[in-house]
Amino acid sequence: MGGIYWLISQVMLFWHSVWDKVVPDHRVLGTNWQWVLAIVFLVITVRVVLFPIFVKQIKSQRAMQAIQPKMKELQEKHKGDRETLQKEVMKLYQEEKVNPLMGCLPMFLQIPVFIGLLHVLRHLRPGTSNTQMELYGWSIPQFLSAVDARLFDAPIVAKFSSNASELARIEASSTTVKVVSALLVVLMITTTYLTQRQMIKKTGWNTDPQQRMIQKFMLYGIPFFTLTSGWYFPIGVILYWVTNNAITLGQQYWVLHKYPPPASSTTSTTPFKQPKGAKAVSGTSEAKPSGFGALFGRAKAEAEQRANGKVQGGAPKKATGAADTAATGPSRAPKPGAKPINPKKGGAAKRQSG
Q1: Beta bridge partners of residue 281, listed in sequence order
Q2: β-bridge pairing 150-151 and 154-155
Q3: What's the rounded Cα separation, in Å, for the pair 292 and 277?
Q4: Phi and psi dihedrals of 281, rounded to 5?
Q5: Which residues contact 214 (CB under 8 A, 6 or more apart)?
Q6: Exposed, middle or buried, 294 (CB in 10 Å: 0-12/13-18/19+)?
Q7: What is the maximum span of the chain, computed from C-alpha positions, in angstroms?
Q8: Do residues 317 and 309 touch, judged by C-beta distance below 8 A?
Q9: Which residues are bridge partners to 155 per DSSP?
Q10: Angle, to 10 degrees, between the axis of helix 82-96 and the axis of helix 68-77?
Q11: Quick one: pLDDT at residue 89?
Q12: Which DSSP string corresponds to 117-152?
């Protein structure tokens, strides 16, 4: 890891020398902007180097979406046979030349940079011997300047968990360090969550259980990790993480809007809110009723059929009674085979007419 520590130190020292010629030498708003901007541009340098890998990450995510129908078929075909399913899935990855880990590769490659910066900032502490100061290409004046560098009056080498003796050696206020650290941790958690949410909101939840588990871990697990680890990180490292998340958020927004992911029936179009009592059906947006809704619908349909004089599976019945009278009107002529009219009623009718 010595080579990584040296490389991180050289990038920081380069950008410090650049900004030392641009910004004032004294503190502005309690901040030594030369060192703060050196950390910010360390992030930018890393992101520029990793940009081709970021493009491969996007392509890998698109490829994973494209093979989701085949994944679904394998899951249905080998349901209950986990071992065979895993073999067939790996075979599918090889045939389609898809690597599911490519989606996390940029993050994995940034881990050595993160560890290197963490080591360098922990190395920057007062009371270090001259020989130790000159490790990784630092000069003694540069080392002492970095130890004294502040962000809003909080040393960039201090951390939330720093004890009173550590803060006394760098002449720092415990309250200031904790407030600045806490604000940066909140920004770190928020930007980490928004970065993952932005991607899932655009592409939807994956129906593959393994990929869905990765999505949930990235959405909830990583922010939780930043919450717990922010206690031990120096302010300079948290600043690095916040800057990296902000760049990722902007870069990802541009890519997703310029090259939107293809529509797929294997992902949910509403990833954070599913309609209740409805299941997504491939190729249609309608939801089939179930439970009491289905029973009520069938009963209603049967009632309408009876009202129209129809019986399912049989011939239609003739309407009788009031319905027949209303439909055809009263008939005066007797029908063939009908019984004779009551003579009393008939005589009464003749007298009334006469």
Answers
A1: 284
A2: antiparallel
A3: 11
A4: -115, 130
A5: 100, 103, 104
A6: exposed
A7: 140
A8: yes
A9: 150
A10: 160
A11: 81
A12: HHHHHHH--TT--HHHHTGGG--HHHHHHHHT-EET
Each residue of 158-195: pLDDT tens digit? 988 888 888 888 889 999 999 999 999 899 888 888 87
Angle at which helices 33-66 and 235-258 cross, to 10°: 40
User: What pLDDT sits at residue 38?
Assistant: 95
pLDDT digits over 218-253, tens only?
A: 777 777 777 777 788 899 999 998 998 898 888 878
The pair of three-digit structure tokens given for residue 325, joined into one six-digit string = 């009278």
Structure tokens at 226: 């930043």
3-class SS of residue 193 = helix
| pTM across the whole model | 0.63
Q: What average pLDDT does the chain have? A: 74
Report how far residue 110's alpha carbon sits from residue 47's, in angstroms, rounded to the nearest whole number: 9
User: Which residues, other chains included, contact 193 with Cβ-Cβ below 8 Å and sequence gap of 6+?
Assistant: 219, 223
Residue identified by tokens 């959405």 is 219
- 284 — phi, psi (to 5°)? -145, 155
20 CB-near residues (< 8 Å, 6+ apart): 34
- Can you read off the two tokens belonging to residue 129? 């011997």
* pLDDT for residue 230: 75
User: pLDDT (tens digit, 9 = 90+) per residue, 287-331?
Assistant: 444 444 455 456 556 666 666 654 444 444 444 444 444 444 444
Nearby residues of 46 by Cβ (< 8 Å), 6 or more positions away: 110, 113, 244
Burial class (CB in 10 A: 0-12, 13-18, 19+), 143: buried
d(CA 23, CA 191): 28
